[in-house]
Amino acid sequence: MSTDELPRSGRPRVIVVGAGFAGLAAVRELRDADVDVLLLDRDPFNTFQPLLYQVATGGLNPGDITYSLRAFAARFPHARFRRATVTGVDTAQRRVRLDSGVEVGYDYLILCCGVVANYFGIPGAEENAWTIYSRRSAIAVRDRVLSNLESVAQGREGAVEPVVVVVGGGATGVEMAGALAELRNSGLPLAYPELDPRRARVVLVEMADTLLAPFHPTLRSYAARALRERGVDLRLGTAVRQVRPDSVVLSDGECLPSAVTVWATGVRACDQVAMWGLRQGPGGRIQVEADMRVVGQPDVFAVGDVAARGDDPLPQLAQPAIQGGRHAARQVRRLARGEPTEPFSYRDKGIMATIGRSDAVVQLPGRVRMRGFVAWVAWLGLHVLALMSNRNRLATMANLAVRYLTWKRTANVIVGDPP
Amino acid sequence: MSTDELPRSGRPRVIVVGAGFAGLAAVRELRDADVDVLLLDRDPFNTFQPLLYQVATGGLNPGDITYSLRAFAARFPHARFRRATVTGVDTAQRRVRLDSGVEVGYDYLILCCGVVANYFGIPGAEENAWTIYSRRSAIAVRDRVLSNLESVAQGREGAVEPVVVVVGGGATGVEMAGALAELRNSGLPLAYPELDPRRARVVLVEMADTLLAPFHPTLRSYAARALRERGVDLRLGTAVRQVRPDSVVLSDGECLPSAVTVWATGVRACDQVAMWGLRQGPGGRIQVEADMRVVGQPDVFAVGDVAARGDDPLPQLAQPAIQGGRHAARQVRRLARGEPTEPFSYRDKGIMATIGRSDAVVQLPGRVRMRGFVAWVAWLGLHVLALMSNRNRLATMANLAVRYLTWKRTANVIVGDPP
């Protein structure tokens, strides 16, 4: 064990663990505060998760939606980034231990390290299914999908039928299935003329009787209809019993062939959280008070997907994470000035899911509901605006525009590295 | 062994092996010809090799300079693409054997499968050095450079000093060293404030007494001066004796530490060419006649880097490859019409190398020489024009523009996947 050699300025030090929506919002909010900020993440980049399904289907480059955390930290005079995983939190001594063995002291700690896929103990799921929750796994899905199409097109022996099974009918599953259907309908016939397009299938399996549970019933059924029209084989009210390397066994006994199984059923707090000795609730989420401080910890905040308030667990979306990160940063400033904390009140800005090119569902507060092209324009505008705060904006917009304008002619504009 | 199941139209079949500059030019030239074209490549994408050094230094996304060959083939009604390596050529039966075991018949064969790095038998070079001749290896270099910087910045035990040694002072080595120097000078101090920038070094080792042998002496010395001004440690007249995992031993006995060694000393024909039973010359290049037909083979052409004419080996650059591919395609059309072939005459369009942002050397036919900003604008214009023929144009230009306009503020806009 070595201790931390970071320069000490005498200003309070705030450690932000996790550089997702919540972590970046917290660092931004502390921009003018008289504190030193140390941002930690296991990856050297921030990932714009809402567009990972585009990476997984070859529509965007990984670099279009990831952003160097060192470049981010360089924008703030008192912020530093360090690539690290937090292996321990000593709240008595106010120190965190990093995977390198180094210990770093803090005055205030903001935990927002996000979540990982929840496999709910389904046999074979963790081993054989792929998630699209990280840049690395989205790239792996893309390369597997493309590599499977190549093998099938060449008639290679042992090639699994080109079927992608998406498990989970939430926003992630719907967006992934929609993008895959588009790839199949528009790209496949051009790029793989030797392949009978009817062989390529997209199956979406959802345990509940509807897709997109948090949405209004009219939008749920609209999404189901829109996916079916695009040729997605929807299996509602169906659970997954087992995932095998090249098939998925359903609760009705059917064994679906599956070249690539995408797991999108939900999330849970990542494993290291359990080592921190903080109070955890359902899904491993860290229990917080009304002001987003961890139960019993006056200097530690938890926000974003990893945190849950007893009475009101907050949805695991970008908005609660951004608002939570900002709130935690504001409370740190208040505490540093000797002021009491304020409770966090989440301002619902609505939810949205895209189904495909020119099609989406959007539900805003006040019973405003949109679907189809109008909803898609709203979805696109919001995502482009969000990306604008990163430096990737020009290239990403250009890629999206190229894809939109030339899709029919070009199919896979962006290619992967199939093994 | 299975035989080929591709549909036969009764039209002559042309097989193009390798989808680099020469292969794509040949397929384009055959657009209106009454032939079926089968394009083969070991990768499912074409790579715009002249910008691979940008990928290797994190300036461009891999997807910005690679282009789906299936999307390419879809633009031509009589062209198909198949991902394959050619393991054998049976010129008597006019068939090629693919790595899948399939054999495919041809009427005309155009070989343009390019080259691989030549290690000249230097001990340890193949095992411990990295090339930037393919998308995969450029990504590996990028991820190693970034990962080394992370380790050093964190003071991890066993981290090798952040020194990159580039071996070879041709255009590839000069461009790579220039881009690395820029990364060090502009990006490093911002992105890695905890790292003393003097520790990060770029060394360029060249056996000859000058850089850029094919250029006029004034441009050679200009390039050397420009690199030195950017802080590149130039070792001219120095050979590499051995490459170790974290150092390079020079001919003067010095052992340079090296976190990443980039091998850019030259190329030779790839290994499978030796299995084809065709006549090979220096560097394994296939010997061709004046009309670019392989010596003794009336139906087989070889063009691009892999081909050499006895008297005039042609430079291994994009232009001879493009012109050669186009020429071979024209000769196929002539042969199919029963006309005799024509000799290939290479039209020199000049050579260029970029040294860094706003700096390059350009040498055009007719003693036209440019250097500095003017040369860089010419370089940029030409590369943007060349990329325009692909679909990646918008995104790549946007990425280049972002990088140019915001470099000082953002450092590594695009990040890799360090292990």
From TrEMBL, chains A, B:
Domain annotation FAD/NAD(P)-binding: ranges: 13-325
Stored Pfam families: Pyr_redox_2
GO molecular function: oxidoreductase activity
Keywords: FAD, Flavoprotein, Membrane, NAD, Oxidoreductase, Transmembrane, Transmembrane helix
InterPro entries attached to this UniProt entry: FAD/NAD-bd_sf (IPR036188), FAD/NAD-binding_dom (IPR023753), NDH-2 (IPR045024)
Transmembrane segments: 370-388
Source taxon at top rank: Bacteria
Catalytically driven reaction(s): a quinone + NADH + H(+) = a quinol + NAD(+)
Entry's EC annotation: 1.6.5.9
Stated family: Belongs to the NADH dehydrogenase family.
UniProt xrefs under PANTHER family: EXTERNAL NADH-UBIQUINONE OXIDOREDUCTASE 1, MITOCHONDRIAL-RELATED, NADH DEHYDROGENASE
Name the UniProt record assigns to this protein: NADH:ubiquinone reductase (non-electrogenic)
Organism: Pseudonocardia hispaniensis
